[in-house]
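Q: Convert this sequence to structure tokens.
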Amino acid sequence: MAGIRMSALVGLPVVREGRTISRVERPVLTPDGHALRGLVVRRGLGAARWLGAEVLKVAGSVSVVTGEAPGKVPEGADFALHGVRDTAGLNLGVVVDAWLDPLTLRVAALEILPGLVEAFTCGTLRCERFAVCPDAQEPGLVLLPQDAWLERWCAAPHSTARR
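A:
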């Protein structure tokens, strides 16, 4: 899958006018979980700052380029996707990563870890169709339609062993 792995953004330098101004501390998705809302960035031991997705010019594999200086971190910047259930309530695992379209910064797919045993036997799973539960009791809970297709994405660790 072509795209940017959201976890790969962590630690990348943020560049403005040819100079590194900070590093990405964590990416934050919109409350519906379908697009990048912005980045929490930090320079050294300084305070956390915010770069909204609208001011990002390029988010690549080497750096993030912006046209504006970081601002104050908004409320809700601690939002993250976590548990995954189907619409019948069956627990399917946890979200471990998201893949972003490099041009639109929209979420192309979620990477789901079904459990520790499954991590060693089949690796992680990928899902492109999902919704985020709007319930304030469980913010970030991902719901998958019962007919959602979960495909094997990353190979299990033992599958690379020599025979």
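The CA atoms of residues 49 and 72 lie 5 Å apart.
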